[in-house]
């Protein structure tokens, strides 16, 4: 249930702001998750009974159930459903709250809007259209890899040397530097969403596989930079950055009418990785480095496969599935490329 609520909250947060702010709002949303991991280790240190711990960690969420009364519907979703007047009212209300009371908002009808009596777009749309089908297959695997490595490294933190509560807290706090790094790289024309996510996944894989080259005796003082714990934290930082980017990247790759379904199917694949993650640390019985080998191979394969996805930086967001094939949509994309070309030449 928490996963479903967080997914819908993420989509709503993105669709309430313009695309230029999606990287910032997406990063801030995931930043709270990292703080929650660190806070959970502190709560777990003082509350040792797991039943009481679960109750203490989940009870505050009940207070936020009533917030839905004050949150309006997504204007992007309303627009994509052909409910233009309602979308205008929401945007007008947002403009008034921002102090722009003199602005009058009037939207053009959406070309691919849902007609009255027409069934809502669902999961089958992701299979029916070749563009969405291949995007979904690649994104599902990338989400699976991010979840497997992310939660696997958190759960493996309890097996590392030192205080387990401190290790888990460090696994949460190490994510904090990942978010400013994401904000910097994913907004640069020479890196963008796709290359940055691939680079972070590959780096996470290399960090995990590097544990193979450490001395076999764990009692040797090999220094902080070549310590198993430090390499695991580097891998955690990198996969956290990739996880943050894949949320923003996925939301931009799907049209508005199918965005919830697309994120939902990717989230389902993500949960499969989370289910398998607790079993990976048990592979230590075969070889002490086996869990990190699994995480490393997964990270490298996910990073390479993600390069097959299209870049979305400075490209228009598709509101309907028809927009992906619309000549007007393609012309708008070409215009943005021409407008941004002088800026890229100046930066280079």
Structure description:
The chain is mostly helical. It has 14 helices and no strands. The chain has helices at residues 2-15, 22-46, 50-58, 75-80, 84-97, 124-128, 130-156, 164-173, 178-185, 192-209, 228-253, 256-276, 290-306, 327-347. Helix 2 (22-46) crosses helix 11, helix 7 runs antiparallel to helix 11 (228-253) and helix 10 runs antiparallel to helix 11 (228-253). Residues 218-224 have low confidence and may be disordered.
Low-confidence stretches: 218-224
Shape category: globular
Number of strands: 0
Distance between the termini: 47 Å
Question: How would you summarize this macromolecular structure in one to three sentences?
Answer:
The chain is mainly alpha-helical and 348 residues long.
Search tags:
about 350 residues, about 0% strand
Draw up the topology in text.
Blueprint: H1 2-15, H2 22-46, H3 50-58, H4 75-80, H5 84-97, H6 124-128, H7 130-156, H8 164-173, H9 178-185, H10 192-209, H11 228-253, H12 256-276, H13 290-306, H14 327-347
Helix pairs in contact: 1-2, 1-12, 2-8, 2-9, 2-11, 7-11, 7-12, 7-13, 9-11, 10-11, 10-13, 11-12
